[in-house]
Amino acid sequence: MRKYGLILILFLLGGCLEKENPDVINGESMGTRYSVNVLGDKRVSQELIDNRLVEINDIFSTWQEDSELSKLNRASVGSWVSVSGELHKILKTSKELYRQTEGYFDPGIGRLIDLWGFGAKGGRTEVPQREEISNAFAQSSIQYLMIEPGRAKKTKDIHINLSAIAKGYAVDEIARLIKESGVTNFLVEIGGEVFASGTNNGDYWVVGVERPDNKAPIGLELVDASIATSGNYRNFFIWEGAKYIHIFNPTTGLPANNDLASVSVIHPQSAMSDAYATAMMAMGSSRAIELAKKMKLSVLLMAIKEDNVEIIKVNLP
């Protein structure tokens, strides 16, 4: 379920760390690395974290052939397939996000993701043939999935890829486990998706969002909230002078091609930050601003205007 984590830098504020250094847990899961920073006397079991991440990967991975999602993707069209409560929950949330974003968040485009080389089948260095794109596009939309409690059915031969929400969900789940362990002040990061709880030695947790022009990162404070960033300057390929990124416009079936270089979304839930950032990156700045205002989201946009980076903040100081 590899999804390239963008472009967040954790700023552990200078002098405060002299008071107390965090207990840091590092590991690997979901095709990327994770880090947990814990402050206070109580400690968190890495085994507990790793076991939960394995459970999540066993449900949502598109890389594991025996994952629950992979089995659903292989199922025959028109056949009901049993799904767990967790998979049903994320599929239901995804369909609601599809409606909210007018189709710009669409995890039913797995065939397009694979065709362009951004999925489990690996990299690609050239643009697919027009007929290939058309055929994949015809079998791509979460609207062709029916869900009921405990089961799901495809009405077309779609492939579902939940990478734009599952990693955020994993952050939420690890944060829940840490809170249940009695820890208040901590930070969880999985492949660039971040959730911050409490404070960092009395100060806000602060993350920095990298700029595509390599200027100083933009710092954003987090208070019991998550941040996810989606952008176009980490995972892409160049073909005949044109850049093709891993974020798709589900309404066209093509890699997104608009004025945005990155989108960062702050939200109480990492799964939602993850999904909204992906959808907005596909939209372009005008629609993204409209959605942020409509949903009352805190959003940082970096748009390319006449070869310059324009910083746009919505519901942020």
TrEMBL record:
GO terms for molecular function: metal ion binding; transferase activity. Pfam families: ApbE. It catalyses: L-threonyl-[protein] + FAD = FMN-L-threonyl-[protein] + AMP + H(+). The keyword Cytoplasm does not apply. The keyword Magnesium applies. It is an enzyme of class 2 (transferase). Its EC number is 2.7.1.180. Its cofactor is Mg(2+). SUPFAM superfamilies: ApbE-like. InterPro entries: ApbE (IPR024932), ApbE-like_sf (IPR003374). Keywords: FAD, Flavoprotein, Magnesium, Metal-binding, Transferase. PANTHER family: FAD:PROTEIN FMN TRANSFERASE, THIAMINE BIOSYNTHESIS LIPOPROTEIN APBE. This is FAD:protein FMN transferase. It comes from marine metagenome. The lineage of its organism: unclassified sequences, metagenomes, ecological metagenomes.
